[in-house]
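Slide 14.
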Amino acid sequence: MQKRFMAIWFRHLLTDGLALRRPELKEGAFVLAAPVRNRVVITASSPMAEQQGAFTGMAVADARAAVPELLAIDDTRGKAAKPLRLLGYGVSVITCRCGRSADGLILDISGCAHLWGGNVIT
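Slide 15: predicted structure.
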């Protein structure tokens, strides 16, 4: 049988979750940041921060040059794993295996013909 995969990307999973827990963050530009090779790098950015020019992978110092009022919050290692693991458990109920990436799920939907209307798509 031919393998089929579905990738689901949760671009703002961490920042949206943090904004739900801390409502004061909803109106401002904020990022999560962690040290990487002697510099502090953005690991996740809110939609407002991205609109103003602060993107994942940038050094916080460079992002603050573009967005002076940018709030940088320390990122905890493995923070994304918990919500993705919970989402993955929900998917496994319909007998699809799933793997986790940093901000998304990759689902092996080979055995889920009902998702394709019972037809094999080639």
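Speaker note: The radius of gyration is 18 Å.
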